[in-house]
Amino acid sequence: MVQKREICFKVFRFDPDRDSKPYFQAYQVPFVRKDLTVLEGLFYIQEKLDNSLAFRSSCRSAVCGSCAMHINGGYGLACNTLVSSLKGNKITIRPLGHMNIIKDLFVDLEPFWKKYEFIKPYLISKTLPSDHERLQSHSERAKLDGLIDCILCGCCYSSCMVTLTKDEYLGPAALLWANRFYVDSRDDAKDERLAIVNVENGVWRCHTIFNCHQSCPKSLNPASCITNLKMKLI
Ligand code: FES
Predict the structure, then answer these.
(1) 24: in domain
(2) Count of domains observed in the chain
């Protein structure tokens, strides 16, 4: 009889209401298909082995950003990380970093959303009524390419060493969005947007480490967006 291959999922566990400290729990997950994803492995654990395991997910197609986590040493989306793309028979999974743990892989994203709200993530129209259609040329629209692909998963935020050391830092995701609206030809609040990020914990706090770029599952480059805002300010 052919022995089925199994993958060991070593998963971070912590229930602040019950546990005095975090620990890792190992689960054996059958490697049933070549295209098995890390998220499917977690669902297998939750449905067949341990229904107390907590994690977030929704779209299962790399669109909603809710399944972001730390997988074998790097941040990524569990739903588009193939088990076969990871080396060895063991996968170590941790929650997003620099965030309070609600339970296991489920973190409190409130500070992340507050910073996103702070940069006013919507078009500000001063010259036309907000319900008026605003046309863009192809080249104006092209400036938004890539920037609008951000799914706010939090991978860049968690990988940022500055966010780690300075809670108040707006962080790469919020600053990418600040730049996204700054470069949008339909937005009428350029000066206001620059003023929002021209603060102690805004763009000047970025050390251009590029962890954000490296960890982005959509291959975006928040550090270059931050640099663009710095250049405009200068
Ligand atoms: S579940 Fe939506 S991005 Fe992974």
Answers:
(1) yes
(2) 2
